[in-house]
Amino acid sequence: MIQFWLIVAAMLAVALLCVIVPLLGRGSREEDMTVARAEGGAVVLAAIFRTEMAELERQAAADPPDAQYGNARRELERRFVDEIGVQPVSTTVRTGSVVQRAGTAALLLALLPCAALVLYMRLGDPLAAAVQTDGTAGPDDSHAATQGSLDAMVGRLAARLRQQPDDPAGWTMLARSYAVLERPDDAAAAYRHALGLTPRDPQLLADYADALASANGGDLTGAPLEGIEAALALDPLNPKALALAGSAAFQARDYPRAIQYWQRLEQAPGVSAAIVGQARTNVAEARRLASGAPTIGSERAGRLPTIAATSN
Q1: pTM metric for this prediction
Q2: DSSP state of 301
Q3: CB burial class (10 A; 0-12, 13-18, 19+) of residue 300?
Q4: Rounded Cα gap, residues 7 and 300, in angstroms
Q5: DSSP label at 199?
Q6: What residues have CB less than 8 Å from 257, skipping those under 6 apart?
Q7: CA-based diameter of the chain, in Å?
Q8: Mean pLDDT of residues grouped by 10 in the chain (312 residues)?
């Protein structure tokens, strides 16, 4: 995690240098040229002044100096002072320009990292960075970091939903997060909120039934079975509802009915090959039990956990 942010900081520093150095350097070069031009103009004016003053002195040497000579000398000096006095304005311009560019650079230094961070938090994957570990971290360390991050995110989602309860998608996400964290009671409560807003969603009904059964030790009778039947009434080919219905019939030792549900599951659209394989295994087990043969493993194996953990 620390290594990730060090890399981010280094990349930001390089990006800032690429922007700020040319900004300051370009202005300095331009100002140096301006000053050079200004200084060159002053040199030319001084040369002209010396030439005119030498000419005036030559005339004065040829003829005795009079009042006209004094006036001409003063006028020449005044004109030179007026013309050369324009030059310091460039220094003022240069100072103002430096301050302006320095302010722009400071603004970039403040805003560019903040903008990059905001953009990453909105479009990136902070959770992935939070759970990164180095090569020396063991599985237990990685699991603890992931668990802590998920708990924090789920807590923030729950807090938001307390302020904005009319969000069925948010309640659904919260319920499924609780299921991942193995908190079935909290998952069932969140599903109830979601179903209160969208009561005719077959997937939500199947998920709610699964959460209720998990909170009751895997027992699918009662309220879970009612939710399964409601889901199948709305969508007869819902994979999760078919899997749970087969498990409920299997628990009740109604093996022919369990076979029927799991065979329908094999034909349901969009079902993965792994689920089809599990359904066929359960069908074979139910047929053995229906024929009076000894069971292989626990009868609760018909629950199809891979489907129960899958949501659309």
Answers
A1: 0.53
A2: G
A3: middle
A4: 51
A5: T
A6: 249
A7: 147
A8: 63 70 56 51 63 74 68 72 53 55 66 63 48 44 58 89 93 93 94 95 96 94 95 96 95 95 93 93 93 59 45 44
